[in-house]
Amino acid sequence: MLKAGIGLTKNLKFLEEVSEKFGKDDEVVVGCQMGKRSKMATEELVNAGYTGITDMAGGYAAWVKSGMPVKSNA
């Protein structure tokens, strides 16, 4: 998703950009802040034939809430 004004719009080059960095069998963890955008991205990748995709369900917020480790530059 890309910022568009005050909202978000779908990145029409998403699959193209992913394919430049990852192969269809690479292990990739997809995450975002709350989990909604990563779920959409994961579904799009799987539908495009990517096999090593894992969605970080609940996003970064769920990761922190569950007590998983985080690193801060502060």
Structure, explained:
It is a single chain. By secondary structure, the protein is an alpha+beta fold. It is built from three helices and four strands. The protein has helices at 14-21, 36-47, 59-65, and strands at 2-4, 7-9, 28-30, 53-55. The protein is globular. This is Rhodanese domain-containing protein. InterPro entries: Rhodanese-like_dom, Rhodanese-like_dom_sf, Thiosulfate_ST/Rhodanese-like. Residues 10-72 form the Rhodanese domain. Pfam families: Rhodanese (PF00581).
Key words describing this protein structure:
74 residues, 16% strand, two-stranded parallel ribbon, globular, alpha+beta, two-stranded antiparallel ribbon
Give the structure's gist in a few sentences:
Residues 10-72 form the Rhodanese domain. With 74 residues, the protein is an alpha+beta fold.
Task: Determine the structural class based on helices, strands and strand pairing.
Answer: alpha+beta
Q: Overall mean pLDDT score?
A: 91
Q: What's the β-strand tally?
A: 4
| Biggest β-sheet strands, sense, barrel | 2 strands, antiparallel
Sheet-strand content, in percent, reads 15-25%
Integer-rounded radius of gyration: 14 Å
Strand order of the largest sheet: 1-2
- The low-confidence runs, each spanning 5 or more residues with pLDDT under 50, are none
> How widely separated are the two ends?
27 Å
- Summarize the amount of helix as a percent range: 25-40%
Number of helices: 3
User: From N to C, what is the helix and strand string?
Assistant: EEHEHEH
Shape descriptor reads: globular
